[in-house]
Specification:
The protein has four helices and seven strands. By secondary structure, the protein is an alpha+beta fold. Strand 1 and strand 2 form a beta hairpin. The termini are far apart.
């Protein structure tokens, strides 16, 4: 086996321990991308433990190739399976991506202050908020109309939005309710 100078430990054991340490670091700080290198070093360390002493001269080259191969495979798997939630969610986005996001009011929102929690709002989904006019009470659903560019977003209550589709849905809902009420009245008359 090839020893690491100064440590007196076999190279494969050092790689194994370094890989395990990086995987633990990934568990403590998810998304930090320690997992790719950690898996590569861990696999290389395990392979290094299996290399017979008669091939000790080739061990560093074999382990280097294993680190590259296992690292490439781990990176592919990490990107393919996107362990941290949805395609492209790990990418950094700008404040414009907040436009149209919905959430709930956690602290009464007025024209000058308030707080909301946005769905899919990232690491810290809580944002300072304001509204254009009036106020929005705690628990009400809101939509971001202007991301602002900082950590203060302008929101409006979802209930304030009423368009042609909403009006048509409401009209259809009332029609069905009146039909079901009429059917219920006919059933009670015949009974």
């Amino acid at each position: 086996m090839v020893d690491v100078p100064g440590l007196g430990l076999p190279l494969s054991l050092v790689l194994l321990l370094a890989g395990a340490g990086l995987i633990v670091a990934e568990a403590l700080a998810p998304g930090a991308h320690f997992i790719v290198l950690g898996v590569a070093l861990l696999v290389a360390g395990l392979v290094g433990l299996l290399i017979p002493p008669s091939l000790a001269a080739f061990t560093p080259f074999v382990l280097a190739a294993v680190v590259l191969g296992a690292g490439a495979a781990a990176l592919w798997a990490y990107r393919e399976f996107d362990f941290y939630g949805g395609r492209g969610s790990g990418r950094t986005s700008d404040s414009d991506s907040l436009r149209g996001k919905t959430g709930r009011v956690t602290e009464r929102v007025t024209e000058s202050e308030g707080e909301v929690k946005l769905e899919d709002g990232g690491f810290n989904p809580y944002f300072r908020a304001r509204t254009v006019d009036g106020s929005i009470e705690v628990g009400e659903e809101v939509i971001v109309v202007d991301p602002g560019g900082g950590n203060v977003v302008t929101v409006e209550a979802v209930s304030r939005f009423d368009d042609d589709i909403d009006r048509e849905l409401a009209r259809e809902r009332r029609r069905r309710e009146s039909e079901s009420d009429a059917d219920a009245d006919r059933e009670t008359e015949t009974a």
